[in-house]
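Hey, I'm writing a tutorial for new members on how sequence and structure tokens pair up, and I'd like a real worked example in the thread rather than a made-up one. If someone can provide the structure for the chain below, I'll link this post from the tutorial.
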Amino acid sequence: MPRFATVALSCTAIALVAAAGYSKIYPWLHPPSAEPVVASAPPAKSVPPPAASADRLIDPLDPERPILLDPSPRAQSSNWVSARPAFQYSRKAVERGGIEPCAGEPVATSTVTDWVPLAQGHFSAPKALKLDASGRFELVIHLNGDEPVRKQLIKSGQPFVLFTLTLDPSRGYAPLFTGTGLYQAIVSGVEQGVSKQLGTTAHVGHVAMSAWSAGFVGITAALGQPSGDNIDAVLLIDGLHAPRGNPDAFKAQLKPFVDFATRAAAGERLLFVSHSSIDPPNFASTTECAHYLIASLGGKPQAVRRADPWGLELIEYFSRGDFQVRGYAGNDKADHCAQLVVLRDAFATLGKRWGTGATAEVRP
């Protein structure tokens, strides 16, 4: 049996076990609902980005929003890699400027097409989509979340085609990408749909796979397939878990992402990981899993502070090449939903890597 097949079967088996109990970790595990669409306000004029200093870092994802180093004492653990998350609190809507993260925010969608259904999932493309000189376009395949993800893509200003697939919490994403050819079917279906939209033959150029919450197990499986070599970037939004209390299963679950992180740190791929401070009882948290990835590369996150959109409070930062990790405070449903807003910066970073030329919309 080929090596990739052995790894894929092992990781998929673990992912299936994890997915089976995932809804018990997050009983409210449903993508945020859609909300009314309104016109977007004109962006503010840009200002020169701030410079780095002894007490702040320049965020490569958004240089105009520096990150402050946090010198205040934090609770220490004998092993920071496996320590359970701290920052066990959650902000109310009034502390988030009136925003309810699980309800999302109004965003105009008039610049993109309606969702085009495929055999599984659907896609949406910019109405003004242009192919490059080779007749190609960029594709993001997102698992778990539809309209909220599309709205963050619109806010990012990036001209990507977006495919999304959202399953009922009782179903798992891993089986869909294990030996089924679904990845190739998605690419082919989107190519046909975009070609029809543009009236000319169009092909996929770069591909990124992103996931929120339980969708990560689908990426685990996809990376273990031969087509996994075609995935240029992975975005994991508060969705990287592994078994707790079983070191071998823990390492096997995370190995595809350790390998991908190693390539991203070298600039060969891009990996963006965000995590909340939710501490599930039966699985390793996204904090622990992110720490394991960082430690596997010989790194350690920096203690920082920054107020991010939707009331998010940035508390940890790690950056090496194209491997980026952002850790946030918060241990409740709203904190999990609020993580979706960081896709805006992640999509903008993809645009820089792929040279699409678009820039992120300035936040109010």
